[in-house]
Amino acid sequence: MNGEIRGGDLTPEDVETFEPGRPVECFIVGIASEPDVGELTRMHYVQHLLRGVKREMEQLGRRGIIITKLYVTSDTPSGIAMALHAGMDECGPRMGKRLRFVMDIAGSNSFLLDDYKRGLSEWRKEQENQTKIGRKTGSRTLQTEPIMPTT
Question: Based on CB atoms within 10 Å of each CB, which residue in 56, 69, 83, 137 is the most buried?
Answer without folding.
Answer: 83
